[in-house]
Specification:
The chain has two domains: 5-75, Multidrug-efflux Transporter Regulator, Chain: A, Domain 2 (Orthogonal Bundle), CATH 1.10.1660.10; 99-218, no CATH class. The relative contact order is 0.08. By secondary structure, it is mainly alpha-helical. The chain is elongated and about 75 Å long. The chain has a two-stranded antiparallel ribbon. Strands 3-4 form a two-stranded antiparallel ribbon. The chain has ten helices and four strands. The chain has helices at 5-12, 16-24, 44-59, 63-72, 80-94, 102-109, 113-121, 134-148, 154-180, 185-218, and strands spanning 32-35, 38-40, 99-100, 132-133.
Length: 219
């Protein structure tokens, strides 16, 4: 349902000047103008503005950075999980990555096609729409060092298994959370981001450090 400027301001807590600025900068779609003095804004503007505010408040992103993110990623702000998925992709470290075709990646990584396919099949590497990135290139070096130093790769497969199980649980709980109260989507988005991007790595890293310390104390 299209919104008037006053309604959009009430829903987002943003000023008229800020909303007009976002439109000018291409972050919000142009309003419909059924009458000379009537401007109607798409309902998706609510989620867009809330997402912009989250990026600014939690990650200190500038307008220029947010513009680049929006140009690089195809968000669908009318779809709850599209915004989460695309945001996680953007925040995963690939926003400034260089992308390579399969042939170029094979040449740079010095992998055979069979080796690359095996890593992808095991869930250790991912080919995305643009191909493979510098992030995958760095991981190949990790795999090579692990093989050279004799590290048991069962650890890698255990990571994949745990990641899949955790991702399924996160999606299920996140879906339930967003369905619980449609009026609090922005709060739910922020909570999901903070849990997945802040709490999860903190817990994993701290438990790893504690276990290492515990093992050292036993010696």
């Amino acid at each position: 349902m299209p919104l008037k400027m006053k309604q959009l301001m009430e829903e987002t807590g943003e000023s008229k000047s800020t909303i007009l600025f976002y439109i000018k900068e291409g972050l919000l779609p142009q309003p419909q103008k059924p009458k000379p003095n009537l401007h109607l804004y798409d309902e998706s503007c609510i989620n867009i503005i809330k997402f912009i505010k989250y990026l600014q408040n939690q990650f200190s992103y500038s307008i220029a950075q947010i513009q680049a993110i929006f140009m690089e990623n195809k968000f669908n702000f009318s779809d709850d999980f599209s915004i989460i998925l695309r945001s996680l992709q953007m925040m995963s470290g690939n926003s400034d990555a260089i992308w390579y075709s399969t042939d170029d990646f094979l040449e740079l990584s010095e992998l055979t096609k069979k080796e690359l396919d095996a890593y992808v099949q095991r869930g250790l590497l991912f080919k995305q729409e643009k191909g493979f990135s510098t992030q995958e290139l760095k991981l190949v070096e990790v795999f090579k060092r692990a093989k050279r130093l004799g590290l048991n790769e069962k650890l890698f497969d255990a990571y994949v298994k745990s990641a899949k199980e955790l991702a399924q649980l996160e999606y299920r709980l996140g879906s339930e959370m967003l369905e619980y109260d449609k009026d609090l989507n922005n709060e739910h988005y922020e909570l999901l981001f903070d849990v997945i991007l802040t709490l999860k790595p903190y817990l994993f890293n701290m438990h790893t450090m504690q276990e290492h310390q515990r093992q050292m104390d036993l010696k």
